Amino acid sequence: MTAAGGTLYQLIMPCMFLLYFLRRGDGFAVGVMLWWIAKNFWEISVYAGHAQARVLPLLGGGGHDWYFMLTELGWLRHTQLVAKVIHGIGVVMFGVGVYVGWRNVAGGRRRRARAGL
Length: 117
Hints:
The protein is 76% helix and 0% strand. It is mostly helical.
């Protein structure tokens, strides 16, 4: 869990906001939060993709957490595949976020038009 801490934080924080806006029923904000999560998946994929080469500079110094995690799982030789899957999840999240945001903006326009505003 310690090795995955930074990655988890990148996802937990926007997910907390996502849950908040879901409970409020703010569909447009939900779309924005999904975009934020997608962006974080894309950033994680870059970091995970460099696990084997370990060329990216680390902010906190120390070891490369994705190198450690993929080595422990026996997946280090599949680094690029793991990065592509993570990136693909981000692409799907982005598409869903754009769709949800667009639906809520379009729905809001229709409601305002019906109300004569």
